[in-house]
């Protein structure tokens, strides 16, 4: 089960992966059993026959990661329940392995969790039909699993180091919760035929009165009672207003239905109909790796009312916001004709990442809907940390009007929201949210520099509301312009090293900003900030674990010109780096976390070809070797 679950793509939600993993294992057991009867016998042709456990593992890999594999196994039917693994850390590992190929993910589980050595893992993959099994195993072994780097953003041990035994990650043990008790109770009150006739008649009547299209009257939804039930506005899930203060799950599922038009059946019908079958001319935006299909169960209503401008202003737009599992959907209409639909992932949202969403924008202002646990809201300029915040009034629907940063022209003012949670959730907790143009604002955090052997490193990213965090974010605020607002949930700024510059030019800080996607992957950028100067980009990497919980060891370098004009190779690593080596056009060695060496002068323009870049490697105190982030590449061993 663990092998199947962690080999499946993370684009599937946890419930789907649990069910598909069960189906894959069931099929593998049957198939391997048929091919391994008499597996204990000996005789001609049996020396290459795998033992039964290897056969089952190979069959699981073939079904979820093998070449020419059939489509992902259909999940078993489960009614009324949502499932997810009970083992803590399993989904963190799944997100870490997301950039790997399916075969490499399977090899990682076989080696790191199932305890196979490299030849044993290669044998399983070869029996599964993987063409280059050895390469898949090498890629799997490159993912770090050892003790934590104490200078990393979290400073915590990896998921394996904290486990007494690999069986602690048991994917067959699952947590369950009811999908919706009210819907299940209502479902048994009448037969499917009666419900279908009543819903269809009601929707057609509203459509005739200008309520909007009926997506179940024709096309792929015709004659489907389940579709009619899921798209019936009368069956939308509505949470009581105070549910958020009496639950252990503080996320979008705790939001009540708010807004002045939650009882407007015509508006809700148009929103659901547009989601099921967008009319021609509808602007549809879907965040990366997010399914756009209509719901199979009635979604959760979060908001129905004004989308922009002051509440109740004439001529404004109307918005409907719905939650369907791990997806947020926003429907906006103007004049009843111009419509837009935005769909975004919200996997594992929490107190900070489910704290707000954007209802609409007009000019330089945006109307934000805040979570019910937000007690106060204010606006501050991220580029001017010394300026006082401007308190924002929260109306009775939980919305505020805030300025939005300009995305055209040079980077200037960078307004962000500073909100505080209710003391009923957590005391004295405030945090920053940046509107970067997407449906959901981005949570900003900061991990300060930890210098010296006796320094106590930060255990995790901190809220970026303290003086030091605000000062650093003011220096790096313009880097937010390159963040993909559709896909990113949070951005952490981590100062991982500091070193003296040559020729007595002061001290420079090395930082890594990680934009973590809702899918778990992340984009990172390493920058160097000399004393008194502006930061400059050094290296970038996409879809990587670097600078995160499972990518805690970082090495980067760049060629820097001193005030005299002489070039130097500068390199620095995170806390666990013991020594650094440079090869190529610059050959140098340094003990410790930083390296400085003279570099050759750049070729006169026009150069016939780009100059070769020095290659950097570092040895950690553990003996492991990592390579430097270089352009859009980066590696570790």
What would you say this structure looks like, in words?
With 637 residues, the protein is an alpha+beta fold. It has twelve helices and 27 strands. Helix 3 packs across helix 6 and helix 5 packs across helix 7. It starts with a helix and ends in a 10-residue tail after the last strand.
Key terms for this structure?
27 strands; flat; 637 residues; 10-stranded mixed beta sheet; alpha+beta
Would you kindly provide a brief summary of this structure?
By secondary structure, the protein is an alpha+beta fold. The chain is built from 12 helices and 27 strands.
The number of E-state strands comes to 27
Largest sheet: 10 strands, mixed
Shape: flat
- Spatial extent as radius of gyration: 27 Å
Mean model confidence by pLDDT: 82
**How far is the N terminus from the C terminus?**
28 Å
What oligomeric state do the depicted chains represent? Answer: single chain
Number of helices: 12
Instruction: Identify low-pLDDT runs.
Output: 37-47, 148-157, 206-212, 216-223, 632-637
Topology at a glance:
Elements: H1 2-7, H2 14-35, H3 52-65, E1 81-85, H4 90-97, H5 102-113, H6 118-127, H7 133-141, E2 174-178, H8 181-187, H9 192-208, H10 225-230, H11 265-276, E3 283-286, E4 300-306, E5 318-324, E6 327-334, E7 338-345, E8 356-362, E9 365-370, E10 374-381, E11 390-391, E12 399-403, E13 415-421, E14 430-434, E15 442-447, E16 462-463, H12 467-476, E17 488-500, E18 507-517, E19 522-529, E20 536-541, E21 555-561, E22 567-573, E23 577-583, E24 588-591, E25 594-598, E26 615-620, E27 625-627
Parallel strand pairs: 3-7, 15-17
Antiparallel strand pairs: 1-2, 4-5, 5-6, 6-7, 8-9, 9-12, 10-11, 10-13, 13-14, 14-15, 15-16, 17-18, 18-19, 19-20, 21-22, 22-25, 23-24, 23-26, 26-27
